[in-house]
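Inverse folding, one chain.
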């Protein structure tokens, strides 16, 4: 039970940190996504999710605009 309580405290601490610093969380998520852990992009606050979505859509739009998919 003590190990479970420690895990819960650690998880709550991480969630509070994500809420306090959404941009740091975004940078951390993007860094983790470069090593193929794309699930981390969806963790965090709504602001982080919106910014991540805009970055991905912007990157795809740039690729389409410059004709890389032709």
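Residues assigned per position:
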């Amino acid at each position: 039970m003590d190990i479970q309580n420690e895990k819960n405290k650690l998880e709550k601490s991480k969630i509070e940190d994500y809420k306090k610093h959404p941009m740091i969380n975004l940078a951390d998520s993007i860094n983790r996504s470069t090593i193929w852990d794309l699930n981390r992009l969806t963790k965090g606050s709504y602001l982080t999710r919106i910014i991540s979505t805009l970055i991905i859509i912007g990157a795809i739009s740039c690729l389409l605009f410059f004709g890389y998919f032709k």
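The chain has a mean pLDDT of 76. Residues 61 and 67 are 10 Å apart (CA to CA).
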